[in-house]
């Protein structure tokens, strides 16, 4: 028997069917399990799209059918965004884009231009305004929108997705009148519909067609792969989104790996239990997403103490303690992972208590997730690790929101805000992402913010609460291994290791040598998924540098 085995192994070794591809002369970098930086120079990829070997300088090079010389270019594992909204990203690129509008006048001008360019679009949908960036700092109103487009419905979503402003035509189409009361957990204000009140307008917007959804998913994948994102925790996945992912998987159009978190227990009617991985590990329903509160920008985040800049409110509590326990328990009993949005310190405390109870009831490896974990009472952070709670956080929220957070909370309540290093020191696990399209899905500004607590322009000098900075190894770990672990996918993705998928990217600079501001400007040259190149940056048309 033993002799037979040896003979069989020898036959295999002498087989001319060499592993397909060797990427050689790479400046390979990845995070180790303990969040140190690991270097390697070659990657051997099997015909099945999985890593066969990681090669270091000095290792003998095995034979391969294809050898690709990386010419010293930097190679990283594909980055995994633990929290993004996939079809929303596609739609945000296809709809009116209002990200970065500099004033209310600028918003109106872009709205007029879009309306003129799209005369046949029955409802104008836009996304991305943020009144905090405008000199007037006030929310837009229905009257503001009417001044630009009076003749058809317009609905424009705030950058955080927690409020929409509608024009009079949209409000009328939705059947909302001055007598309409805002539902619990919502607010209506001159055409602004906040949190739960959004539903009043949203239900009137014609649902996207199957073709619209397919187009949005294709667009989203194109954007993600261009930024080196090969995996996503697909948050708030609707049943229609899920069906769109399935269609793409069935027809081989899924390149980004999606760990789907369906929205609320109502999704369980269509997807009653977590699924296995499908389509070569490209899609899996893993969890159910819940919301504990709103967002800080619209003062919907639920705080323990009143807002510093609006002392008559503590934000919006979405569920009673009993209600959120019942909902999450229902999903946990069906085997789902639970991911709950919590921004304010009161919401985070409520969800930690909820998870502590679920953890006693379901003591296995359940990886309870809190999405955002933005404003947290420092006393609550040590409660994460004992209950197996993962903090799923977005480093660019810190750089985008710090001035607003200071205004909303005042100077003395920020000790547990965006507290990445404190989370890690407490022994809890961290998963990084962007919450795209709230932020750009580009992971590099996030990695840069994580190590510097500074924005892409180096602000503020010295970093905001710099004690919360991470090392590059920790940041890369949270963006690869951490986000894979967060989606129960660490056996398949998150690092380049024999048996895992060969999902990797080639980039234009070495993050171990780049300053934070340069790291933020990293460009992805190539993106590979399962050993196949799925994105390649068009060669620059600029003239070669002198001396080359
Ligand atoms: Zn989100």
Observed structural traits:
548 residues; alpha/beta; 8-stranded parallel beta sheet; 6-stranded mixed beta sheet; 16 helices; disordered N terminus; binds zinc ion
Detailed description of the structure:
Residues 1-15 and 541-548 have low confidence and may be disordered. The protein is α/β, with parallel strands linked by helices and 548 residues long. 51% of the residues are buried. It has an eight-stranded parallel β-sheet with strand order 8-15-16-17-18-19-20-21. The protein has a six-stranded mixed β-sheet with strand order 3-2-7-22-23-24, covered by helices on one side. The protein has helices at 2-13, 86-94, 104-117, 142-148, 168-173, 198-202, 210-226, 239-250, 321-333, 345-361, 395-409, 420-425, 443-452, 472-479, 481-486, 516-520, and strands at residues 21-24, 27-31, 37-40, 42-45, 51-55, 66-69, 74-77, 79-84, 96-97, 124-129, 154-158, 163-166, 186-189, 192-195, 229-237, 257-263, 283-291, 337-342, 368-372, 389-393, 429-432, 504-507, 524-529, 532-536. Helix 9 packs across helix 10, helix 11 packs across helix 13 (443-452) and helix 13 runs antiparallel to helix 14 (472-479). The chain starts with a helix and ends in a 12-residue tail after the last strand. It is 30% helix and 22% strand. Bound molecules: zinc ion (ZN). Zinc ion binds next to loops.
Radius of gyration equals 24 Å
Q: Strand percentage, roughly?
A: 15-25%
Helix residue percentage: 25-40%
Note poorly predicted spans: 1-15, 541-548
Number of strands: 24
Mean pLDDT: 94
The count of helical stretches stands at 16
- Major beta sheet, specifics? 8 strands, parallel
Q: What separation lies between the terminal Cα atoms?
A: 61 Å
Oligomer: single chain
The secondary structure category is alpha/beta
Ions, cofactors and other bound molecules? zinc ion
The coarse silhouette is: globular
Strand order, main sheet: write it out. Answer: 8-15-16-17-18-19-20-21
